[in-house]
Every structure is written in structure tokens, then in C-alpha cells.
Structure to design on (315 residues):
């Protein structure tokens, strides 16, 4: 984390040296751009956690193959695509987006909250419904924030602003996934002995198993039962209880990662409250290449200019 902060500061200092940096820092003076980037960064926490830990649950706990686990993600991805498409159409026709984005962030938080109830015996259709709700929440952020940013910046910087939004979405997913993986690992270690006892494994056997099982891969896709019997042949009478306990511990650990996404989605919703909703442009009046101070004027007045609808040609 400290190294990341140092690299981030060094990157900003380096970018300030150039007239045409990779990420123009003056874009962050536009409040709409800054809020959109922040909200997208936070929303990515929940999305990346879902698309990483749900397939692992399907493979490790439900026993699905890699292909089957991909198919089981279709409810989430289908809801995401549908909600992104519909939200884009709604914004294009109504020119209103603030309440839509806030509602989508709350819906994402609700879907992720339902996913925190994940257990080894969770019914597949119920899990699919939770995934659909989460997908309906994350979808609009992919479509609407892009429209908001493109509407807020000067026309000649639309490409740069859009790519910057995507960049921070990826960074948010990477940061969120790193934190979520740490939460998952610590929760799994904490839950394994607890769930083994609940599954009926004697406490003395639990102590011996947890001390000697450091080489076992509890999160892999192989046959866990065979791996346990290979290393602990004496555990044959209770191996089914051990597997059940590990699967439940894995489920609880995976479910715990979604709390990070819930917090991120709710903070994003609060951040969007401060977004100033301005009318969408109907055309783009591209200025002639200018001299000197034009870039500075655009960066400071971009958001104000974005709210003015350009007159159609010939008027």
C-alpha cells in the first residue's frame, strides 16, 4: 500500500512535467469528471470481487468445471449487459442520469449484501437471483459514467477522458481485488477450524489436521477428498465431514469479500449526490486549433461549457 502511494505520487509529479501527459491533470479540476472517476473506482471493488470469487466458489464448493463456472456467471453478466443498454437509452431520451446512477449503486450494494449470505448449501437458483440483482446495479455505471464524462469535458479531450475513466475502473478493480484477497485468506484461516468442529470433526482431530494440512490447497480445483486421504489416510472415517467443513469455511470466506464492494458502492452513491446534473450535448462544436491559453481556459470552463447545448448547423 505504501509502495503504491509512493508510485502514485511519483506518477503525478512526472505527468506535471509534460504539456501532453498520459492523464491530463487539469481534467480533475472539472468536478463532474472527478466525481465520475471516483465513483467508478469504488464501484469496481464489488464487480471484480464477484467475477473472481464466484467462479472459484462454483469450482471448489459446487464441483463445477472451469467451463461450467463460466456458464454460472451468465445471470450476472446478462443482467449487467441489459441494464447497461437500458440505462444508456434512458439517459439518451430523458437527459437525466443522477438518480439513475445513485439507484444503481444502491442496487449493487443490495446484490452484494445478498451474496454475503453465501454458504456451501446455497441453492443455485437463489444464488443466480442475487447475481442478477448485483448485475443490474453495476451495469449502468459502465454506460452512464462514460456519457457523463464525455458530456463534461471539452470535445477535443473526450477520448482522453473516456480512457482515463476506464483506467481508473481497472485500477479500482485491482486495488479492491488485492484487499478482498487478503480478507478472503485471513477469513478462511479463521473459519476452517470453526467449521470443521461444526461439521462433526472431533476437536482433537481438528487440531492435528490444521497443523499438518499446511501443504493442502483448500482453494484448488482438484479432488479435495482424495488430497486429504493421500496426506491423512487415518482421516478416512471423517473425511466427508472434513470436506464439508472446508467447503463451508471457503463459502463464508468468499462471502466476506463482498463487504468491501458494499462499502465501495455506498460511498460511490454518496459521492454521486454531489454530482451536478447538466443537460447532455446534442452536437459537438469543435473549436479551431487555438493558441496559448486555450487549453487552460477549456480545463477550467469545460464543465460549464458542457451544460450548454450547441446550436444545430444552419441555425
Amino acid at each position: 500500500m505504501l509502495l503504491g502511494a509512493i508510485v502514485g505520487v511519483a506518477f503525478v509529479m512526472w505527468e506535471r512535467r509534460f504539456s501532453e501527459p498520459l492523464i491530463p491533470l487539469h481534467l480533475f479540476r472539472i468536478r463532474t469528471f472527478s466525481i465520475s472517476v471516483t465513483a467508478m473506482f469504488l464501484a469496481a471493488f464489488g464487480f471484480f470481487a464477484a467475477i473472481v470469487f464466484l467462479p472459484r466458489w462454483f469450482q471448489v464448493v459446487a464441483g463445477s468445471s472451469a467451463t461450467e463456472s463460466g456458464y454460472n456467471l451468465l445471470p450476472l453478466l446478462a443482467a449487467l449487459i441489459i441494464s447497461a443498454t437500458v440505462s444508456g437509452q434512458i439517459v439518451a431520451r430523458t437527459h437525466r442520469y443522477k438518480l439513475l446512477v445513485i439507484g444503481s449503486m444502491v442496487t449493487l450494494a443490495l446484490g452484494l449484501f445478498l451474496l454475503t449470505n453465501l454458504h456451501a448449501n446455497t441453492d443455485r437458483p437463489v444464488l443466480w437471483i442475487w447475481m442478477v440483482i448485483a448485475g443490474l446495479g453495476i451495469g449502468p455505471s459502465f454506460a452512464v459514467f462514460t456519457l457523463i464524462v464525455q458530456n463534461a469535458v471539452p470535445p477535443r479531450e473526450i477520448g482522453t477522458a473516456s480512457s482515463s475513466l476506464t483506467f481508473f475502473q481497472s485500477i479500482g478493480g485491482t486495488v479492491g481485488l488485492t484487499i478482498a484477497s487478503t480478507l478472503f485468506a485471513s477469513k478462511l484461516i479463521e473459519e476452517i477450524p470453526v467449521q470443521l468442529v461444526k461439521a462433526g470433526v472431533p476437536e482433537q482431530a481438528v487440531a492435528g489436521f490444521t497443523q499438518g494440512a499446511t501443504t493442502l490447497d483448500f482453494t484448488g480445483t482438484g479432488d479435495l477428498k482424495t488430497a486429504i486421504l493421500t496426506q491423512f489416510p487415518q482421516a478416512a472415517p471423517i473425511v466427508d465431514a472434513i470436506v464439508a467443513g472446508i467447503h463451508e469455511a471457503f463459502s463464508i470466506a468468499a462471502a466476506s469479500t463482498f463487504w468491501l464492494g458494499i462499502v465501495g458502492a455506498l460511498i460511490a452513491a454518496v459521492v454521486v449526490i454531489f454530482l451536478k446534473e447538466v443537460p447532455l450535448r446534442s452536437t459537438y462544436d469543435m473549436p479551431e486549433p487555438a493558441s496559448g491559453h486555450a487549453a487552460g481556459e477549456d480545463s477550467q470552463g469545460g464543465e460549464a461549457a458542457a451544460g450548454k447545448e450547441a446550436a444545430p448547423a444552419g441555425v
